[in-house]
Structures are given as structure tokens and as C-alpha cells.
User: What shape does this take?
Amino acid sequence: MQQGTQEARSWPFQEARRLLARAAQAKAQKGYVLFETGYGPSGLPHLGTFGEVARTTFVRRAFETLSDCPTRLFAFSDDRDGLRKVPGNIPNSEKIHLYLGFPLTQVPDPWGCCESFGHHNNGKLRSFLDSFGFQYEFKSATDCYLSGMYDTALLKVLAHYEEILAVMLPSLREERAATYSPFLPVSPKTGKILQVAIEHYDTLAGTITFTDEDGTRTELSVNGRTCKLQWKVDWALRWCVFGVDYEMSGKDLIPSFQLSSKICHILRGTPPEGFHYELFLDGEGKKISKSKGNGLTMEEWMRYGPIESLSTYLFHSPKSAKRLFFDVIPRQVDEYLVFLGRYAQEEAVKRLDNPVWHLHAAASPQRESDLSFGVLLNLVGVCNTEDPAVLWGFITRYRSEASPEKMPFLAKLVGHAIAYYQDFVKPHKQYRTATELEKQALTALKETLLGLAASDADTIQTAVYAVGKAQGFTELKSWFSLLYETLLGQKEGPRMGSFIALYGIAETVSLIEEVLKRSP
Assistant: This one.
């Protein structure tokens, strides 16, 4: 056990402690504690997929620090589900309409490169998770059903048919409840997964009887080749078969988790420890909808910020709703940098509550530079360039030892800053003209900067503060707002001492002189 673990208070450690009570039994029964995340391969992996795996990994790492019990993480794909609707963003969609109702692993791949649509999206999931270095084992529902792994458990579901119905029916609308069954038979004639009423079941024979699409009354054995389960029952069966100890899900799935837990108990299993995270909101504070596209994609976040900034955002307060929009990215990049810089100076117990420990564990990198993302954004703005080499000219003057080769993470931030500035800052820049009184204050700042003996960030920041106070700005916030709005053309900005130290005193004086020339 790592030093200080008992004092760690971050939420992954709190979750890990809940798991400790299961560790001894799990180790005795199967030799490890099992974490699981689920994925629906009717679409491509997305930011929510990353979030669930990342947060589960945070808890797994914390648990491994508290316990010597081995762990495993299954990334489970529900690829035996029937195709319910054709996504609008795939090629050859008109051909895929012919396969509505078929298992995803029997629907042709619209891109023509894989065995099926399900296999294609499973491959994307694995590449997606691999690209972020997650440690997991992939599991396919199709493999589990067709291999016979579920057969014994399916017979158990049949044996408890009425008990399961008693759990599920009160949760359904009257029309749905009239035909609901835990089992979804696979038509022996078409291969489709059918949403039909089960007219008769025989626990001794292990069969179900239903009317197929062509009107034929059909009896099938209950096994993984001829049927699958409705998803809440399927979820419970999976917990029982694999002995899942921990699984996260969104707040919207709390009722489903509770129903599946009851079914798991009926099947003589133990439901996993659950954690229900809050859902993301869009820029207007409304619930994100994949169909509306009112949230951020992984590709969009990673265009404007490093993956570590997203992980930091996901780490904080997972049970609180968060806005997931472009304007949160710069602050999250800088928050990650603050935690990264603090990590190296912290004692062991405090490190365990630092997001950096959970993102990187023992392989935590060193912060390469004291430059913030906000400062880089403003440097891009005043330089008005898309050329990283121009920015590195200022950076190397500020830190002679700096270079893209020696500081690859900073180089990445430079690229993100250029992209973010061009797409979100530049279109909204609006320089305010200073009043005569404000010009007097700016003139005083110009003269103070020219008279500085030192040009380090702290010295400059102290000088800027002093000028603001001397010029009668009782609320220094209004002084800095003046600087941001007149010099940078925006409502908010960086720590001015850091910005001026990077951009240069002479260059900043030139900015001030431009402002002084503008007519009111």
C-alpha cells in the first residue's frame, strides 16, 4: 500500500474503498476484481465513451493502490443488438436500411472494410481506447452468445421468467408491457432479432414459443444462437456470468441499474458497485443530444486542447452537471498545467488527491514551461499569425533553452492555441477606444515599463498593479479590463506580467502607443 493512501480524499479513492469489502470474496471466486464499461456499437466511440473508461480507470488505479488484489477491466460491446435505425452519417445508408432488425455483427459494413457494421465499430472502439493507452480487455456480446458462454444462464432466466416479469412490467408503458418478454428470439427464417410476445415457455424443455414475422408459430431452444435478452435483463446476466464488481453509468440509467440489480439478485448473482455520473450540458446549459449535435466531439476537443485537459475536466466533480462547450477548454488546459506544476512539489499524501496522479499515476511528467495556455492565446492574438515559428521566436527569447524538440508538450499547446484563436477568438475581437483619463493611465504604464530594470514576470506584474492603484483604479479588476479591452481586444485576458514578459516590453509599449493614437 502506497504511503498516505488512507488519507486520500479524492472521489476515486472513496469509490475504491467501497470495493475493498468485495475484494477478498472476488479474489477467492475468480482471482481478481472486475471493472466493466459498456459500449453500444450502433455508432462510433465518442467523448462519453472516453469519459466512462477514463473515470473507471481512475477508480481502478486507486483500488490497486489500496489492495493487492489483481484487477481486470472489460470493455464490453453490445454488438448482438439488432439495428434499430440507420445512422445518418454513414455511406451506403440506403442499402443498410435492408438490415433493420438484424444483429449488428450481421449488418454489412457500410465502409466495406470489415466483416460487419458491428465489427467495424468494434475496431474503432479498440483503436480509440488504444490510442489513449487504456489497459482493458475487449469483450463482444456476439462472441458470448454464439460461443455458448451464456447458455446456462439463459436457462436460469427462463426458470425465473415470472419473477423477472414481475420486476420489469411495472416499469413499462401499458402497450409495451402487453408484449414484453425477457427473451428476443432470432427468427430462424430471416435471422432478425424479433420484438415479439412469447406465447409459451417450457422450463423443462428449455424452449420458448412465438409467432414469426410470416405468421408461423415457432418453438426455439433457449440458447445464445437462437435468442438474446432484452437489454436490462442482458445487463444483469452479464454481471452474473462474469462476476462484475464495479460499473459506472450515467445518471439517466439509475432506474435501469436498479432494475438490473433486482434481476441479478433473482439470478442468484451480486450486482456490481455502481457509480452514476451526471450528464454533460451544452453551451446554453441544456442536455446534450447526440442527434442534435449540440455538444463537443473528441476530435473538436483535441483540436483545441490536449487530452490531459479533457481528463482533468472529467476528473472534477463527476456527480455535478458540466457545460461541455468550446469556451471551457482554455481554462481546463491551464488547470491541468497548474496541477502538473504543483505535483512535483507536493508531499505523497497530497499527490493522491491531485488529478495528475490519477491521469498519469507513477509516470507523471514534469511541467516543461511556466507559460500558460491563456498567455499563448494572447501571444497568437497580438502576433496575428498562424505560423508556430513566429511564436517560438518570442518563446525562445523568453526562455533561451526552449525549442519544439526539447518541449514537445509546449509545442502541442502552441498548435492548440493557434487553432483556438483562429476559430473562436479572432472572429470576436473588438478593440475599445480608451477615454482621455484612461489614456493618461496607459501613458503612465508605458513610462513605468520603459523604466523597469528587470523584465521578469513577477516584477512586471507588481509594476502593473502599482500603476493601476496610482491612477485611481480602486477596483483593479477594472484596470485589467481596460488593458484587455484596449490592448488585446477582448473581455478577459492573461496575467499581464506573464504576457508582457513573453511578448516583450518594447513590443507592449508599441501596443500601448497604438491605443494612444486611436481617436475617441
In short: Residues 373-428 form one domain.
